[in-house]
Fold these 3 entries.
Entry 1:
Amino acid sequence: MTFLITWGLIGAYIVAPEMAADTFGEISGSHPFFFLATWSPAIAAVVVVSRSAGLSGIRAFLSRLLMWRGSAGWAAFILLVLPLVFVAGSLIEGGPVLAPLPPEGAGPVVAVLFMMLFLGPIEELGWRGVMQPLLQRHMAPLWAGLVIGATWGVWHLPAFFLAGVVFAEWSFLPFFVGNVTLAVLVTPILNRARGSLLWPMLFHWQLINPFWPDAQPWDTWILVGVAVVVVWWNRDTMLARDDAVTDVLPAPRPSIPRAAE
């Protein structure tokens, strides 16, 4: 379902660009079709949960967005280490510490930052919300992360043939390796937070923060090294399913009996 929505919408602009543009307008990062294509993992996740558990299941599924439990270490990783990777990658290739601001100042960039909150992070409802728990029922978290990362990378492929979006300026292979690496990195974050979707969404938001400089492909290679360290450090939980999250719907909290009157 995810591939059908995204590849169908974007494919129309690749196969018949003039007809698609005349019918639906020029594609861009703010086009409604671009949002739908980006949201397809979430749309598929909600449909699957709805068919399996109904409206109450959707409510339970979305309650994972409100789970704050996590660790200070992973919060520091998201807030500090990821930005440092982009800065280091940019400096290696002789770029700036931060992305250059437009003539209008920081205001438009802040607006884009909040718009991004409703793009990439929404994908996590599908990738980490449904796909990761289901895969971890059958394989260790490391292998689940690798499978999701490869799927995630291939899913982006049509955007590299689409003019008017940032992907058209990138090389696919480093991006694909980056997707696999990032999926591995976010795996222990999801499991440590016991299935919270908040932390993977914040992780994803940090990746597309417009204040960070474009450091491809150096940021990818740095992240590969970081992922190797993270997997080795967490090897007990990454290579075994004992503590892996396998529930798409969080278990209901046990009721507390009322005191006898």
Entry 2:
Amino acid sequence: MEIDLQLANEKRVILGRDFLTWLWFKSEQQNGMFKSRSGEDFSLYLEQKVVVEGGEGESLEKAVCTGMMSELREAKLGLRTGKKVAQAKIRLEQDANEWIMQVDASDFIFSGLKTPKVDTKVEEGDDPDSILLEKMFLVEKALGFLDDIYTGFVDLRLSIHWQGEVESFKKWLYRDED
């Protein structure tokens, strides 16, 4: 039974890396524009920090690219050598709202989630739980956007259109090569 759990974990890691790698490609291809399943427009960008990895065990290679206005050239070079995105800093935007989080492909853990600012002033007669409820709403909104994108990715990954997506990805990957 332990072998099956190990195999399931390895498949999850592979799918997670494929998703974050595809997400970077898709966000650049679509200028960050996405649509939720309910029809809401929002933007998503990978920025400031991307970790790419390739190999395993002692031959594991990792490249960490950071910077405020980084174009992430080294990370993209890593993709060209067969690495995949293992971690990424993601910025979501909708109207005047902005969410920032770090996503780890191996276990889909979201860390450092920063939501839009919530007004903490409570007027007389206001529900004292309103601040917490607003914060929870904003967390759910961000995770819902990512869930919608992931669902679309899995649907595409399992469809006959995946090979065409891979070809588009390759064109994007080598587009800026000198």
Entry 3:
Amino acid sequence: MPATARSLGTTTGQLRRMSNVEQLDWVRRYLAPYRGKMGNWLDVYCAVFWPAAIGKPDDYVITSDKVARQNPALDINKDLDIHKWEIREALQRSIPRQYKHLFE
């Protein structure tokens, strides 16, 4: 997001021109405020997708029709609310079988 990039002292254009390895420094800067708050892989995902969900239980709800419509794969039950358990389930479905044990 342009505003997020600006808050980190860069631009989306600059980030786009960087290699994935060069971008890691910016990822670290972005995640720094959440250090110590992320207890598992799902919290790391939420730090990027919806930071208010970090540390919340699986029944935490993102009640935003707009967010649900923009992310239909995460709204598993199609009620236009995204529960944290839905994010977990949707992501686990996309993990190759040989790596699933890392995300349980």
